[in-house]
Amino acid sequence: xxxxxxxxxxxxxxxxxxxxxxxxxxxxxxxxxxxxxxxxxxxxxxxxxxxxxxxxxxxxxxxxxxxxxxxxxxxxxxxxxxxxxxxxxxxxxxxxxxxxxxxxxxxxxxxxxxxxxxxxxxxxxxxxxxxxxxxxxxxxxxxxxxxxxxxxxxxxxxxxxxx
Length: 163
Description:
The structure is a single chain. By secondary structure, the protein is mostly beta strands. The protein contains three helices and twelve strands, in the order H-E-E-E-E-E-H-E-H-E-E-E-E-E-E. 14% of the residues lie in helices and 45% in strands. It has helices spanning 6-13, 60-66, 79-86; strands at 18-19, 21-25, 32-36, 40-44, 47-54, 68-73, 102-104, 110-112, 117-129, 132-144, 150-154, 157-161. The chain has one domain (19-154): Pnp Oxidase, Chain A (Roll).
């Protein structure tokens, strides 16, 4: 065993299988988003979601200032969307939304049409720890798409799970 350093930690974390979720926020030219593998349910009563966001992300200040977000789990067919929003393809800003269908949620956030599950959330709290902020969102609306499969991230690559 070795004392952890940032690179060793990142390498070890790649061994975790992570569900790919898309966080979107903002409107117009301020629309932004990012891919996370940290999205989980926090509570069913009341319905709360939790996700960790790197504060160096271009989306972080928009999330903080807008106070809402949409969380769309990604299905088996959504790898191109994941690549656009993760920065792998070099596409930035509002251009990341091109080539997909979107639904405007109650808060004004954009939910991905066809996502296995999509949650519209109001930010209740952001807790800063080290490089990230733990974002807790109260769910105000939910939409589901049965049989959409799943997109996962494991060992530095996307993997799909079809029903």
